[in-house]
Write a structure and sequence with these properties.
The complex is a heterodimer of chains A (529) and B (339). Chain A is mainly α. In chain A, 76% of the residues lie in helices and 0% in strands. Chain A has helices at 12-36, 40-83, 89-97, 104-115, 120-125, 139-164, 167-175, 180-209, 212-216, 222-231, 236-267, 285-316, 324-355, 359-368, 376-389, 398-423, 427-434, 439-468, 471-476, 484-493, 497-521. In chain B, helix 4 packs parallel to helix 5 (167-184). Classes of the chains: A mainly alpha (529), B alpha+beta (339). Chain A binds chain B through residues 2, 4-9, 424-425, 427-428, 430-439, 442, 445-446, 449-450, 452, and chain B through 12, 14-15, 17, 51-55, 57, 74, 76-84, 86, 88, 90, 92-94, 103-104, 147-148, 150-151.
């Protein structure tokens, strides 16, 4: 690609905060590498040869199965809700997105509380002489948990791609005498191919990085091993080494995702003439509705039911409930401040990468996505080292926690901010310059107002991810600072399902608000939650 | 008196592609000039270079007495006082029609009056509070022109201003835009690939091909007296007859035809546009093979007795039936050295 020499230059008001934001995101990566090498290479050899092979196989197997399961649910669901004449399409679109409001550790908690040794199913079956259910802990439990919470990522990506698809391409195939099925198989599906691949890799990345779900189901992956090394043996160098190894695996997946996504965007640039005629389902209507209803039942209704069940049982048994009000208050506050701070820091980077050309802007943007490859637990760990080593005043304050949220969710904020900015041609700034406006005035009167729709999506999105976040919240919260995720974690590791159900329901309710709002506006497809 | 816009030897390269190859152009004050050429000839690049949205690799650009780019000197676009109307209009989606037009003005009472005057001039009274997506395509186009005119630019550049309009709207918009430009007395440079746009709006036309300005002249100059075959093809339909030039006339199958300009004796190609052919009692015998109605004119295929075929265009009221006719050329023809 050639780079024409533009007459427009980005102002320093953008460059300086943009560079600072990127420097911030590079901090944990740099520090992690630094910390992992301080005990010499022999330590690497020892740590990796002890368990890394098994952890790698376990993590990759989980990522593969969760991706496949997500796609199996998500592709038909997306086609039904986007392209078919289905009663209550908008309701289904919201219901299929709502599992995003359930954190993986809450889903894990409900799976254990429903199917585990002292779970609901066991209790119901005991009168019939069933002493033991098949083991739920381990691979299949973890796979079930993560598939249920991560299929919406694939659903949203594929549904957005389907909406962006030029319907005249499908119509052309129909006029050439092909059936609906042939058209779907030979035109629609191949056109969705790269979007689907991007969605699958996103879910694989999620499964690799997840800590809460695998920990609840006691399945040994990198994240669980890192946490155990960190907490029980206090062998922090070993934790750092495993963190680097995990980040390496995640980077490969992320790189593949960026590559296929770049291709999918190019293919989808179509001019929408008229909305396509919805496909009539005919006798397939009831089977389709049953399919969607069972997906929503398993991923949404069932977990909520299990939580309510344990809550009611806890009330009846006189369980002592924790102080949920304080932790709700803290989590709400962290979510709001975290969202505002992250979006403010992401905005200059988003503006530079979408509204101004040049290699420097592109390099800045790509660097900002580096932290996407760092799982939350790894970032948290790195900030713990950093706090102890260099920032004693910050360590164990809520500032440190906010710093972790900013680093973790800057990529999410960026992709939400960039989507609407990319849809507006860059000649708007050129027009303003040709009307005699200096670069700063152009920024204030044209560029920033264009970013507004993206800000409206980014704020609730980051709020959602902050309130759900577990590992950084566990590792970096000031001592005695109660949060909903922290409370759920400590109660459920004690198997106090009744007590844990209360904060879990409150958290799901809180997280459901931004998800429902975004899904209702149809804004979720623009950004990965 | 200095030229309103002067480009000298302006070159722009995109990697291996020479978008502009020493392009040279001068626009007189108050003149409306059209830059006409096929797509990819560099005309939009020249426009963006004059506006300062694109830096030239070499060459000089002047606006009146001011130098805009020369050597290391580069005046940024917002200090040039050059208006630019974009092909897709680039109206600010978050501002109303009135706010779009007023964007380049201050916030004084006078500028509010200016916006009202311009709205009236564009026939947009009562639409000032609407947003760009709430007005029609033709109205959006006028908003784009008025927005650029509002700060009284020293020159106005228009990039394919009519390409997004359908044929009927196009004709009336040409007249309206020409009227707005002349009412403001602004020097304007309009880029188009459509010769009807160029000829109907512009005082003079500059023909561009392969990054260079081929010829500048009035529409009549370019149509009747093109200086290169490229210019001839850009400004009308072309067909050539081989011939030999002798003392100001070219001898062809259609007889010895008077030539335009000074031409050297020798073998040459004579340009005979289809509409220059006409029925002539004294002309050369030909056979009409067939005719079809294209828009408002007939196009007939003729065969001369030596087998040469020619296309002749006649007004819609004058249908040609197959059969024998006599034809001649009504105007002096441009000739080019035989290749």
């Amino acid at each position: 690609m050639f780079a024409p020499r533009s007459g427009l230059r980005a102002p320093a008001v953008l460059w300086i905060p943009g560079l600072l934001a990127v420097a911030l995101t590079l901090l944990p990566a740099w520090y992690l590498v630094d910390r992992s090498t301080d005990a010499g290479w022999a330590k690497w050899d020892e740590t990796l040869s002890r368990s890394a092979g098994e952890l790698l196989v376990n993590s990759l197997a989980l990522a593969a199965v969760v991706s496949m399961a997500s796609a199996t649910i998500a592709v038909p669901a997306a086609w039904l809700t986007v392209r078919c004449a289905l009663p209550g399409r908008r309701f289904w679109a919201v219901a299929l997105s709502l599992p995003l409001a359930i954190p993986s550790y809450v889903m894990g908690l409900t799976v254990v509380a429903a199917l585990g040794p002292r779970g609901i199913l066991q209790g119901w079956l005991e009168p019939f002489g069933v002493e033991r259910l098949p083991e739920i802990y381990g691979f299949w439990g973890a796979a079930l948990t993560l598939s249920a919470v991560s299929f919406p990522y694939v659903y949203l990506v594929v549904a957005a791609a389907m909406r962006a698809l030029d319907p005249s391409v499908e119509e052309a195939s129909l006029t050439l005498g092909k059936t609906r099925w042939t058209t779907f198989a030979r035109v629609t599906f191949p056109a969705l191919g790269s979007a689907l691949a991007a969605g699958l890799l996103l879910v694989a990345l999620y499964a690799l990085s997840d800590f809460g779900g695998v920990a609840m189901l006691r399945y040994d992956t990198f994240t669980r091993a890192i946490f155990i090394e960190y907490q029980s043996s206090f062998d922090r160098t070993a934790a750092a080494i495993l963190g680097v190894a995990l980040a390496g695996v995640a980077s490969v997946v992320l790189l593949a995702e960026l590559l296929v996504r770049a291709r999918s965007v190019e293919r989808m640039r179509a001019r929408r003439i008229a909305p396509p005629q919805p496909v009539a389902l005919g006798r397939w209507l009831w089977p389709s509705l049953t399919f969607l209803a069972s997906v929503v039942a398993v991923t949404l209704a069932l977990p909520v039911f299990v939580l309510v069940y344990w809550l009611v049982r806890g009330f009846r048994a006189g369980t002592e409930f924790p102080d949920v009000w304080t932790s709700f208050h803290h989590t709400l506050l962290l979510g709001c401040i975290g969202a505002v701070v992250t979006v403010v820091i992401a905005l200059p980077v988003a503006l530079l990468s979408t509204r101004y050309g040049g290699w420097a802007s592109r390099a800045l943007e790509q660097t900002a996505f580096v932290s996407h490859a760092l799982p939350g637990l790894v970032v948290a760990l790195s900030l713990v080292f950093f706090g102890i080593g260099y920032a004693g005043d910050l360590y164990q304050t809520t500032w440190m926690l906010l710093l972790a949220y900013v680093i973790l969710f800057l990529p999410n904020a960026l992709s939400a901010l960039r989507a609407p900015l990319q849809r507006q041609g860059r000649e708007l700034e050129e027009a303003a310059a040709a009307l005699g406006r200096a670069p700063l005035r152009v920024l204030a009167t044209i560029t920033v107002p264009l970013a507004r729709p993206g800000v409206y999506v980014a704020l609730p999105l980051v709020f959602l991810t902050v309130v759900k976040e577990l590992p950084a919240t566990l590792l970096l919260s000031p001592p005695g600072y109660r949060t909903l995720p922290g409370q759920i974690w400590s109660l459920s590791t004690n198997a106090s399902y009744g007590a844990a159900a209360f904060p879990a329901l409150v958290l799901v309710g809180l997280a459901a608000i931004p998800v429902a709002a975004l899904a209702w506006w149809g804004a979720l497809g623009d950004a990965d939650a | 008196m200095p030229k309103a816009i002067a480009c000298e030897g302006v070159s722009v390269r995109f990697g291996e592609v020479r978008a502009l190859d020493e392009a040279t152009l001068a626009v007189e004050p108050g003149e409306v000039m059209a830059l006409l050429g096929p797509s990819g000839c560099g005309k939009t690049t020249l426009l963006r270079t004059i506006a300062g949205l694109q830096r030239a690799d070499s060459g000089t650009i002047r606006l009146g007495a001011d130098v805009l780019q020369e050597g290391r000197l580069f005046v940024p676009p917002h200090r040039r006082a050059i208006g630019l109307v974009f092909q897709e209009y680039a109206l600010f989606p978050h501002l109303t029609v009135a706010a779009n037009i007023g964007y380049g003005l201050g916030r004084s009472e006078a500028s509010r009056g200016r916006v009202q005057t311009l709205l009236a001039m564009g026939g947009l009274q009562g639409l000032g509070h609407r947003y760009p997506h709430q007005v029609s395509g033709g109205q959006q186009q006028r908003v784009a022109v008025l927005r650029s005119l509002a700060p009284r630019p020293k020159a106005l550049l228009l990039d394919e201003p009519f390409s997004n309009l359908d044929a009927t709207l196009r004709a009336s918009m040409r007249a309206q835009v020409a009227e707005m430009l002349r009412a403001e007395g602004v020097t304007a440079l309009l880029v188009t690939h459509d010769r009807a746009d160029a000829f109907s709006v512009a005082d003079r036309v500059a023909v561009m091909s392969a990054g260079r300005v081929e010829q500048v002249g009035t529409p009549e100059d370019l149509y009747f007296r093109p200086q290169t075959m490229a210019a001839a093809a850009i400004c009308g339909d072309v067909q050539y007859l081989p011939g030999v030039v002798r003392s100001g006339r070219v001898e062809t199958q259609l007889g010895a035809l008077p030539c335009t300009g000074d031409v050297h004796d020798g073998p040459a190609s004579a340009l005979v546009r289809p509409e220059w052919l006409a029925l002539a009692p004294e002309g050369v015998a030909a056979e009409v093979l067939g005719a079809s109605l294209e828009g408002d004119a007939w196009r007939a295929l003729l065969r001369l007795d030596d087998g040469t075929t020619l296309v002749m265009s006649t007004p819609g009221g004058q249908r040609l039936d197959p059969g024998r006719v006599r034809v001649g050329v009504g105007v002096p023809v441009p000739v080019f050295p035989a290749s």
